[in-house]
Amino acid sequence: MRRPALLCALLLTSAAAQEAACTLPQGGALPTRTRAVFVLDTSGSMRGIGDGRADIFERVKASIGAYVRGQRPDRVELLTFDSGLRSRRSFAQPAGTAAWNAALANLKADGTNTHLYRSLQGALAPLTAAGGDVTQVFVLTDGIDNDTREAGRAVTPQVALAAFRGRGPLDRLTYVALGTEIPPEARAALEASTYASGLTVPVGEVPDLAGAGLEGGLRRVTDAARLPPTFAPGTPLTLGVGPALKGAALVPGQGRPALRLPGRVLPGEPALLCAPPPGGAGWIAPRPRRVLLRLTLPGAGLTWLNPGADRTLRAGEDVVLRLRAAPGLNPAAAAVGGLGPGVRGVVEARPGAREFAVRLTGWRPQPGVTLTPTLTFPGLPALALPTVQGAAGGRVPVAARPPAPQGAQVEPGRRSLGALWPGLLAALVGGGLLAALLLGRGRPRRAAPSAARPAPPPAVEGLTYREDRTLSLVSAQGDVTGVPTPLGGPFDLGQLSSVPHLSGLRAEQHRDGLRILRIPPDLDVSQGARLVGPGDVIRPGTLLGVAVARRARAPHPPLGELAGLGLPLALHVGAQSVRLRGPYGEHALNLSAPVTDLGRVLRAPALEDLAVSLSGRDVLLLRVPEHLQVRPAGEASALRPGAALPAHAVIDFLKG
């Protein structure tokens, strides 16, 4: 009776010790991606040449390929060595790609030496966990180190393993000796290490790199009822969780174990799945096996608010997915992915808000192709969103069409003398001789094709309030562009859409539709023949007309980074500075260059070629593009090039 009791006590003690060791690493962000590093011996012995005992090279390559296809690591580094490191290539999402398949197929074992430790040191030194990777390193060789350098310069196995200074707490290395014994000095280094193990396999055999004892890395759990196939059936497992999953437990199953969760969990919530060290012959310094789990269960953390939305996407149309994020998720920091060619996606979220929208815009969607967009929060795996179906028809927006070819361009801040002759004359008259002479020093050059800007979108002449309670802008050509429309609270349409001439048009969502709160006096909004006024409620499915009645608010290309200022724009001039002020803010610019193109410096396309120059304590107006005029505040007449700017001026955008 004493022997069974003693055996039971030993088993309980072993299980308790394993459970105690299965804890999530503390003190930093846990990995979100997987990386596999293969350090492959390419000496001739791997083909049975020289002192080689078997031709195994092609089968070793096949084992590496099988691992990448089955485990699908996010990143792979493939290194080869013989008389030192021979090649190093990195691949992102390589499984099934032509580049990866070709790189693996083209490897040849034709080296003459096995400088193992020196090569391993060079392979491990650059690796770091800072990129959010959990790394598994596989060293694959059929030989032993034969570096003949003198004792003081030869790299020892301890030094080689210590080179992985940037490793994370879950990173592992396995030295796989193919048909040879691991030398005593290497065995001692492996046993003294905290992260490395050794495995010897018989001559002529090639291991399964995802097999028993080699488990590790990261797995994404999408179904709590069936964990990913990580460990062999019957392997004793324990679970390590953080405070958010307190109470979670493993449930044994016929095939794979399951997770019993305490409730809904945030996407990407981590857990640790642990197993005891591998047993059996061939292992040296076997380590407890730990696999990081990231829970990305369907619907976790997100609530879909408009499941009845039309998810058919044509050219020029939008699909808007309205969502609510769980506490702890920041929609404003999320990014949209998983989109095919011809589709663009943005997250529309106000800072601090939990309700947000993902807007998918069809530029050239592929008809009949189903897309599964994803949403990625910082530090978390991607979440799948409802699918969208591409369809034929629609109209490609102007911004999606290729820009017209351009001829000779001039470097920013420089112009050719011929192009600047009118400005030069005006500057001479106004006293800005030095500035004008400096202005003409540059020579024209041909811009690279990538520098060409797309044509500006047409002016907005209509608004559509759609059935899904979103707003879209309608141009004179019929192009439709969606606007990030909040579900609650008042908003300014000019600020949301980055269309300055709509600034001051305020509205909010109402039970019966869209309530208009304010319309500027120089902006007409109409529904058919009736003018819309403050207090009116616009029903879903309504088309509104928009017209402007003042030159300062005339439709024009976007103001770029100045769009948030609103309209009209005023120009306030100091001794060596200008301030552009709108209804919602201002932007200050100190003038230091002899000539400043305000549009280029402030990245506001509508102001390009509006140039000023310093002349003593005055700021001269050098150039004004045809679609603008600058006039003193309170006056109707425009300033001419060469005149000194007054302390306060107004910028008018002219129709044209």
UniProtKB/TrEMBL annotation:
Pfam families in the cross-refs: VWA_2 (PF13519)
Task: List keywords of the entry alphabetically.
Answer: Membrane, Signal, Transmembrane, Transmembrane helix
Q: Which residues form the VWFA domain?
A: 35-179
Domain of life (superkingdom): Bacteria
Q: Which residues cross the membrane?
A: 419-439
Gene3D superfamilies, alphabetized: von Willebrand factor, type A domain
Task: Tell me which CDD domains the record gives.
Answer: vWFA
Q: What span is annotated as the signal peptide, if there is one?
A: 1-20
- Official protein name in the record: VWA domain-containing protein
